[in-house]
Design brief:
This is ABC transporter ATP-binding protein. Keywords: ATP-binding, Nucleotide-binding. This protein is α/β, with parallel strands linked by helices. It contains 9 helices and 12 strands. It is about 30% helix and about 30% strand. The strands form 3 sheets. The protein has a 6-stranded mixed β-sheet, sandwiched between helices. Strands 2-1-4-5 form a 4-stranded antiparallel β-sheet, covered by helices on one side. The chain has a two-stranded antiparallel ribbon with strand order 11-12. Helix 4 packs across helix 5. The structure holds adenosine-5'-triphosphate. The site of adenosine-5'-triphosphate has 10 residues, from helix 1.
Length: about 250
């Protein structure tokens, strides 16, 4: 399943939030989306999830314009974990995650054991099985974030879009979520602020002021030159003596 943006533009009250963004999310790849605050990452993820339409250009899913697929068909294929997504408070964690099954249910196909299995598996994958019966309102910020990811996984998408999924998470759960995303075997697009975490992606797309600056493997894209131009920081590359992997360290530009 291939999701493509062709020259996508989006403006609000005359201000361009995205300009001529073209990219292809290849089947099975882990694509990182990086850029300074306000560079358009969330705007692009929402359009990719079929929430709203671009003012210019088009998004396609397997070559067909996304908006022609219809919201239910899109929701069976694409799931979005938005930033600080809300959920009504008087609901258990299991029921909140079960909402992810909605696109698969209709008058002819009611809730079944298959749906139970999807929900149980999604909870287990984010380490929340023990909290399944808890009231949503009692969860910590990080637990909520993981429950949102579980809801998206229960949706059983082929493309998963995540907006800063490691926000609120302690370091162990940050690593756990990134491992989980990397091991899903489906296409993922993840907006990230931690550029060392972005190094784990197959490719990264770099946005600045709504324009795509670079797209490619992180080791070739995240050069000190690009990081200075896009983020106004001086980056130094270090090598982890343990495994030889590349690390980035940052200082303000003098
Ligand atoms: N509905 C809207 N009306 C006006 N401006 C908007 C609207 N939605 C987004 N913007 C603006 O568009 C720009 C891009 O926002 P977006 O949330 O996509 O950035 P981002 O890269 O995800 O930022 P962050 O890293 O801070 O989450 C921001 O300047 C934001 O204020």
């Amino acid at each position: 399943m291939t999701l493509q943006a062709h020259e996508v533009g989006r403006s609000v009250r005359g201000r361009a939030l995205l300009q001529a963004v073209s990219l292809t999310v290849a089947p099975g790849e882990m694509l990182g989306l990086i850029g300074p605050n306000g560079s358009g990452k969330s705007t692009l993820l929402r359009l990719m999830a079929g929430l709203g339409r671009p003012d210019r250009g088009v998004l396609t899913l397997d070559g067909q314009p996304l908006h022609r697929h219809g919201s239910r068909r899109i929701a069976r294929r694409i799931a979005l974990v938005a930033q600080s997504a809300g959920t009504s408070d008087r609901i258990t964690v299991r029921d909140a995650v079960a909402l992810g099954r909605t696109p698969w249910l209709d008058a002819l196909r009611g809730w079944s054991e298959v749906d139970d299995r999807h929900v149980a598996r999604a909870l287990a994958r984010v380490d929340l099985s023990a909290l399944a019966s808890r009231d949503w309102s009692t969860l910590s910020g990080g637990e909520r974030q993981r429950a949102h990811i579980a809801r998206a996984l229960a949706q059983d998408p082929q493309i998963l879009l995540l907006d800063e999924p490691t926000n609120h998470l302690d370091i162990r759960h940050q690593l756990q979520v990134l491992d989980l995303v990397a091991g899903l075997g489906i296409s993922t697009v993840t907006a990230l602020h931690d550029l060392n975490q972005a190094m784990r992606c197959d490719r990264v797309a770099v946005l600045k002021e709504g324009r795509l600056q670079a797209l490619g493997p992180p080791a070739s894209v995240l050069t000190p030159d690009l990081l200075a131009r896009v983020f106004d920081v001086r980056a130094t590359q270090l090598t982890d003596p343990q495994d030889g992997s590349r690390l980035l360290r940052f200082q303000p530009l003098a």
